[in-house]
Amino acid sequence: MLDQRRRILITGGAGFIGCNLADRLVQDGHSVTVLDNLSRRGTDKNLAWLRERHAHRFQFVQGDIRNPETMNQVVTGMEVIYHLAGQTAVTTSVTNPRDDFEANALGTFNVLEAARRFGDEPALLLSSTNKVYGGMEDVAVVELPTRYTYRDLPEGATEHQPLDFHSPYGCSKGAADQYVRDYHRIYSLPTVVFRQSCIYGPRQMGVEDQGWVAWFLIATTVGRPITIYGDGKQVRDLLYIDDLVNAYKLAVHHIDKTAGQVYNIGGGAARTMSVWAEFRPILSEVFGRAIPDVPHADWRPGDQPVFFCDIRKAQADFGWQPQVGVVEGIRRLAEWVQANRELFG
After folding, report:
1. Which residues contact 151 (CB under 8 A, 6 or more apart)?
2. Which of 180, 181, 177, 13 is nearest to 112 (CA)?
3. Is 1 within a domain?
4. Which of 246, 265, 304, 317 has the most CB atoms lying inside 10 A of its own CB?
5. Considering its fold, how many domains does the chain have in total?
6. CA atoms of 241 and 200, how far apart (whole Å)
7. What pTM does this model have?
8. What is the CATH number of the domain that holds 178?
9. How far is the C-alpha of 131 from the C-alpha of 232, rounded, in Å?
10. Backbone angles phi, psi at 33, to 5 degrees
11. Is 286 among the domain residues?
């Protein structure tokens, strides 16, 4: 479907993932509209970067998915919608659950209704999260010297893992996730849900609450304190941004197969790492100096001791698999952070 020029909307298109996706799609020759309210830290810088690279080859609309009239206008005539806008941090959702709900659940509903009523039967892909699976307390976990791992899931969690929304963020994203699925069943809108693991790469303005890989690199570069929540042996699968963009494009290209489906999208079993016990030595290698241990605090609500996803369904349905290894991806991100440290002053 993306082999020819398409009218594409990216909500949250000035965010980390959105601006990388927009950059690729504009290069591919598509008619791209970026919608963003520019409330998130660094989105103004990402927008400036896009304009520097592409000048007037894309359209920018400053607007909010929580406003249904805005969505009705911007969705009109669109053939593809990548819905990336929303609130992204568990901790923020705990502090302000109403804002979290309005951004993630209500905002997604507005996007879906606009797509149903005013879009050109658009393919719609939602950026969801593995947090919809909750703490996965029913899954046996083994503690090893530097990490936790699943006892019985060598390839990771599949899409058949029961939903168990945990934290306001899990609830709001889970509601969005299910609404997107149901709009395919009820209205035949060609929708796809990506339940994403940890995504990292250039243009990620990581902070303590969200984007931990980038945050650790930024903090180490500019000398800010790092706190580890939990024991640092929590395991996540990491996916480099270029690999995620490839998945986005392939899923829409194969929309006849992917419509109505849910996919776990991450680095998979081959690209896992514990957040401090195994990441710290890589930090030392990348920066060429010993990285001292840092303070530890209590675990955060809904924080899984281990999550990595089984990505074989995506491989089977639309031929996708990650290409960038964890160490190589971290090196690339570290080089970008160090070359752009003025962004984090």
Report:
1. 140, 141, 142
2. 180
3. no
4. 265
5. 1
6. 6
7. 0.96
8. 3.40.50.720
9. 19
10. -115, 125
11. yes
Tokens of 343: 């962004």
Q: Look-up: residue for tokens 């149901």? A: 182
The token duo for 79 is 């053939």
Q: Are strands 80-83 and 123-129 parallel, antiparallel or unpaired?
A: parallel
The pair of three-digit structure tokens given for residue 127, joined into one six-digit string? 């950026």
CA pair distance 60, 55, nearest whole angstrom: 11
Query: Tokens 């609309």 label which residue?
Result: 61
Dihedrals phi, psi of 74, to nearest 5 degrees: -75, -25
Q: What is the pLDDT of residue 167?
A: 87
Question: Would you say residue 61 has pLDDT above 90?
Answer: yes
Residue at 236 is within a domain: yes
Q: Is 169 a catalytic residue?
A: yes
Distances (CA, A) of 132 to 135, 163, 175, 195: 9, 6, 9, 8
pLDDT tens for residues 302-333? 678 999 999 999 999 999 999 999 999 999 99
Among 148, 169, 240, 263, which one carries the catalytic annotation? 169
**Joined tokens for residue 220:** 């180490």
Q: Is 2 part of a structural domain of the chain?
A: no
What is the spatial distance between Cα 283 and Cα 331, in angstroms, rounded to a whole number?
9
Per-residue pLDDT tens digits for 148-199: 999 999 999 999 999 999 889 999 999 999 999 999 999 999 999 999 999 9
- Residue 306: which of 333, 327, 278 has the closest Cα? 278
Q: Which residues contact 67 (CB under 8 A, 6 or more apart)?
A: 110
**Domain region containing 88:** 7-344
**Is-contact 302 131, C-beta < 8 A?**
yes
Rg, C-alpha atoms of the chain: 19
175 φ, ψ to 5°?
Answer: -60, -45
